[in-house]
Amino acid sequence: MSAQAYDPLAGRRTPDGPQFDVFLAGTVFLDIIFTGLPAMPAAGTEIWAEGMGSCPGGIANLAIATSRLGLRTSLAAAFGDDDYGDFCWRTLEEQESIELSRSRRFEHWHSPVTVSMAVERDRSMVTHGHPPPMPMSEMIGAPPRSRAVIVSLSPDEPLGAPGGSPGWADLAHRDGALIFADVGWDPSGAWPRSLLDQLSVCHAFMPNATEAMAYTGADTPRDALYAIADKVPLAVVTDGANGAMAIDATSGEEAFVPAPRVTALDPTGAGDVFGAAFVLGTLCGWPLDDRLAFAGVCAALAVQQFGGSLAAPGWGDIADWWHDVRESAAHGGAYTSSLLRRYAFLDRLVPTVPVGAVRRAAATIARYADVGMGPPVPGKQPE
């Protein structure tokens, strides 16, 4: 049976509303993930992995996370004309229902590839790629009208830069989109505070604790949060297993929510999942506590699986988790009672989720995954 779509924004849609909920742009990698390795291979040796997965990665992690949560997602990216590009394009468009009209295929351009090797709870990666043949803003032109865009702050394409031609995110902002920003690791160690000047045009900033402290010069994640809240209406700092904290000046809310207890197997893409879920909650107008809690559980569900975008949960996974929590209430302790209180808002959402709602993909290197694309092969078990 095909997966049924669940639209969490159905009650907010109007005929003259934006075409998309989220517009994204960036680089798509073909991710090949080897899991269950006993150790990293020594020089000149070969070892066998217990499992493997193949899926679009890079910006595709975020696009898949938003789409599986029911947000209408459009993605702009360069794709090669090789088989890797075919696989990534088909997976995103046909399987994950991501709109690609602003994406382009380029002849004789090699698709970027990352090989990830997971040993216990650690991973190592090898990546090969070339710069896209065309600047992103030139490829996109006028971005489609959307409720939100999610961008990573960069000195190369600064947001709101005075003078010069505006970038694609600035154009989307002028057309009414809210800008949700994050930031990447600075390998140079410079962590220039001037990068945060770009927050003047952003609605939200969502760094992790390490990044937040480095860019603000604060000694604690909480102090970093306050520094960020002076620069942007919606400040969020994630702190891994410790949870997340936020200040929303538009509503006057401040909140801290601990992360659910899980056994983390692979953190790949967890930050993207958190960001996608938090954007959803914000677009839905949820209270800040509920937004943080929802984003936290979505990220927790993702780290329990290997595979980057393959691990991004759908509403079916969220409904399954909440049903399990409710069923364990009779014999659960204080922790279960805490979950029941913290996630009580899911009671008004889960009953409307279709029984066959989208769930995470479990396939490895296969054309189809169990989010509803194609039928299982008789006698063939997932790897």
UniProtKB/TrEMBL annotation:
The keyword Coiled coil does not apply. GO terms for molecular function: kinase activity. Pfam families: PfkB. Residues 169-310 form the Carbohydrate kinase PfkB domain. InterPro entries: Carboh/pur_kinase_PfkB_CS (IPR002173), Ketohexokinase-related (IPR052562), PfkB_dom (IPR011611), Ribokinase-like (IPR029056). Keywords: Kinase, Transferase. SUPFAM superfamilies: Ribokinase-like (SSF53613). It comes from the Bacteria. This is Sugar or nucleoside kinase, ribokinase family.
